[in-house]
Amino acid sequence: MNIILKREREVNLNIFIALLITVAIIALVARLYVLNDKKIQFFAKGLDSNFKFAEISTLWKLSKKAKLENPISLYVSLNEFNNCILKYIEDEKAKGTDKSYQTQQFLTKLYDYRTRIALDTDGKRGLESTKSLNVGQRLRIILPGKGVFSAKLLSNGRELVVTRPVQEDKKNHRFHMPECEMWIGHSVSIYFWRKGDAGYAFDTTVFEAGIFQGHDCLFMRHSDKLDRIQKRQSIRCECNVYAQMYMIKNAVVDYNSVNTEEGYRCLLEDISEDGALIRIGGMGKANVQIKLQFTLNDTFIMMYGVIRAVEYNKEIEQSRLHFECTHIDPAMKNAVLSYVYAVIPQDQKEKSEAIRESENDSKEEAQIPQQSAEEIVRSAEKNVEDASKTVQHAQEAESQKNQEEQSQEHQEEEKTEADGGSTYFGMGGVGAFNPNDVIRPEGSVSDYLARK
C-alpha cells in the first residue's frame, strides 16, 4: 500500500513539475512575443508578400536604418518603400555588389512589390468630387513654376475656400506667403490625403481672393475629376529621351546582341518597365516587332517588344507609337524603374513632393483632433469680438487724446467741431478722424461671416 502511495506521489510530482515547465515556457514565449511583436508582424507580412526569409531580414535592417517608427508600414507606404529601395542600392554600390545576380533579383522583387502597392491603393473606390471634402482638410497646392504650397480648406459650398497658401524654404527654414491677388486666374494642381482612404489629386482654377472667417483666402472652382495616384498596370513617367529603333526581322532573337549601326532615330515621350510612348517622323505601322537602344542615367538599355497602336498626325507628318515591351534584361529593367521612381522632371518632382507632404499630413492629422464646424465658427466669432474690442479701445484712446487737445487749444476744438470730427497728428501730417466712421457689421457675427 505504501509503495502504491509513493508511486502516486511521484507521478503527481512529475505532473506538477511538467506543468511548471510548461507554464514557464509559455510565459517565456509570451514575453519574447511582446518584446518582438513588431518584428514578428514584420516577418509574417513579408512571408505573406512572397519575400524570402533572408530578404525580409534585409528589409528589416533597412527599415531600422531608415528609422521607421512602425516598420510594417514599409509594406503599405510608397514613400517609405522607395526610401528603403534607395538605401539598399546605396549599400550595394558601397560594397561593389550592385550589379550581382542576387542583388538584381532582389531589386526586381522589390520593384514588383512597389508597383503592387501603388496599384492596390488605386483599386479602392474613393472620392469622386471635391464637394465631398471636409472642412479643415490639409491641401498641397502646386503653382506651376513656383513649387508646392500648403493650405487648409476653410469652406466647401458653391466653391472651395482655402487659406492663404504658404511655402516653406527647407534650406533656410523660412516661410513665403505670396499675396492672394497673385493667385487669381492661375490653374493649380491640388494634392491631399484622405484619412482612412488614399491620396488624391485634381486640377482647378483660382477665380477670386478675399477674406473668410478673418483669414486671407482663395476661392477655387469645384472638380468632379479626382485622380488617385497612378491608374495603370505599370507606373510611367514623362521623359524626353532620344533612342535608336531597329526592326526585328529574325524569327529567333538574340537578346544579348548590341546593334552598332545607326538605327531609326526616335524620341521617347514617356517610359515604364513594360513599354514606352515613341514619337517618330512619318507614318508608323502597328503590330511590328522592334528593338530600342538608349541610355538612362549613364546606363545602357535595350528593350524588345511590339508596336500595339499608332497615332498619326497628318499635319505635322509624325506618329506616336504605343510600344509594349516583351523582354528586357532584369538589370536594365531595374535601371528603368529607378529612373521612373526617381521622377526626374521638375513638375514630376513637385508632384512627388506634394504626394509625400500630403502623406505626412495624414500622419499628423491622426494625432491631432479635428475641429468641428461649430468650433471653427465660435473661434471666428471670438476673433471678430476681439477685433471689435480693439477698435473700441482705439476709439476710447483717440477720444481721450482729443479731449486733451481740446483743453489745450480751444481754437482747434472749434474747428474740429465745425468739421464734424477731431484732429490727429500722424506720421503723414494732419488729418480728420471720426470714430463714427468705423464700419461695423450689421446683424449677428454668423450673418457677417455668411456674407463674407
Report on the structure:
The protein has 452 residues and is α+β, with helices and mostly antiparallel strands. It has 10 helices and 17 strands. Strands 1-2-3-8-7-6 form a 6-stranded antiparallel beta barrel. Helix 3 (53-65) crosses helix 4 (78-95), helix 4 (78-95) packs antiparallel against helix 5 and helix 8 (373-408) crosses helix 9 (410-419).
Beta percentage is 25-35%
Q: CATH topology of the largest domain, what is it called?
A: Pnp Oxidase, Chain A
Separate helix tally: 10
Q: What is the approximate shape?
A: flat
- Residue windows where pLDDT falls under 50 for at least 5 positions: 368-374, 420-452
Helix content: 40-55%
Q: Which architecture of the largest domain does the CATH hierarchy give at level 2?
A: Roll
The largest sheet is: 6 strands, antiparallel, barrel
Structural class: alpha+beta
CATH class of the largest domain: Mainly Beta
Strand order of the largest sheet: 1-2-3-8-7-6
